[in-house]
Amino acid sequence: MAGVSYKDSGVDLDVYNEAMKRLPRLMHRTFSPRVQQLDGGFAGLFQLDFGNQLFRRNYQNPTMVACTDGVGTKLKLAQMIDRHDTVGIDLVAMCVNDAICCGAEPLFFLDYIAMSHDDPLRLEQIVQGISDGCLQADCALLGGETAIMPDLYSRGDYDLAGFHVGVVEKKQLIDGKQIAAGDVVLGIDSSGIHSNGFSLVRKIVFDVAGKKADDRVGETEQSVADTLIEPTVIYTKAIRNVLSHYKVKSVVHGVAHITGGGLAENIERITPSGLQIDIDANSWQRPAVFDWLQGLGKVETDEMYRVFNMGIGIAMIVSPYYADKICRMLERDGHPCRVIGEVKAASDATMKSVTVHNR
C-alpha cells in the first residue's frame, strides 16, 4: 500500500514545476542591463549602477526607497469575472506610485502569489499583468514566490503582494518639507476606481443593486466588468520626466498617491504644519463610474471623497510659476492634468489641514 503523498494533500509538484516554467520569459522581458541574470538561483541580483559609462548614473548619495502593497478585494472581482491578466498591473502600480512620491527611480520588483491550488494558466495570466506593469514602470521583475496552500484558501482564491525598491539622490528626495504657502496643487487623472474601496464597490454593485458583470454602467457603453477591472494608472515615467527636466531647480515640492483615504488624507500626509490646502472638486470632471456608484448606493458625498480617488490618481504640489509647464509635460505623456487647489498659511502654526470643497 502506497504512503500518503504531497499530491494527496492538494499540492502537485509536477503541475507546480510546469507553472514555474512559464514565468522566466515574463521576467526576462523586464530586465535592464543592471540585472545580473541568475535563473534558478535563490535570490535576484541587481547592480545599483550601470557598468556602461554612457549610461552610468554616477550616484553621489543614493537613498533607497522601498514599498510594499497588495491589490485588496479587487481580487474578488477578478475571480468573479475570471479575468486575471490586469490585477498584476494594479499590484505594481500600488507600489511604484507610492515610491514616485519620493522622486524615486524604479529599480526592481518582487511578487508573492498565494494560491489555493496549482493552476499554471492562471498563474501565467497573473504574472503577465505584473510583467506588463513593470514594463510600464521601467523596473525589472527580479523574482518572486508562489505558494500553494489548499488548506488556507478556498478553491479558486488567491492573494497577491508586491515589493518594490527604487533609488533617489538624497538632495533630490521629495518629502513635502518644501511645500509652502502660495504653492498650487496639480491633479493628474485616474483611470477610475484604481485599487481602493472595492469592498464598498462590490457591496453597492452586486449586493445592493444586484448588477451583473455584463450589465452597462449607467448611460455608458462599458460593462460593469470592464469598468471595475480597469487597472490602476502607473505614473512613474511621466513624473520622472518632469523631475528630470527640473534637476537643478526645486519645482516639485510634494507628491501624493491618492489611494484609500482619498484626496484629503493622502495630501495631508505630506503637508507640513502651519499650512492649509484647499481643493476645489469643481476643477475636474469626475469619471462617470463614481456618480454611478454614488447613485446606486445612495452614498454620502463626504464618504465618496474619503473612500475613492474621485478621478485624481496623483496630486503634485508645485511652485505656481511652473504649474502650466508641468501640466503640459504630463499631458504630452498622456496624463491629463490641471490645477485643483492652493496652499495657504494656516491660522495656527502648529496645525495642518486639507479640505476638499465638494460639489
Fold-level CATH name of the largest domain: Phosphoribosyl-aminoimidazole Synthetase, Chain A, domain 2
Which structural class do you get from the secondary structure elements? alpha+beta
Query: What coarse outline follows from CA principal-axis ratios?
Result: globular
Strand content: 15-25%
Radius of gyration: 22 Å
Question: What letter string, H or E per element, gives the SSE order?
Answer: HHEEEHHEHEEEHHHEHEHHEHEE
Are there runs of 5+ residues with pLDDT below 50, and where?
A: none
Look at the structure and give the CATH class of the largest domain.
Alpha Beta
Corresponding CATH superfamily of the largest domain: PurM-like C-terminal domain
Q: How are the strands of the largest sheet arranged?
A: 8-10-7-11-9-12
Q: Number of helix segments? A: 12
Number of domains: 2
The CATH architecture of the largest domain: Alpha-Beta Complex
Q: Major beta sheet, specifics? A: 6 strands, mixed
pLDDT average, as an integer? 94
Helical content stands at 25-40%
Termini separation:
73 Å
Q: Total strand count, please?
A: 12
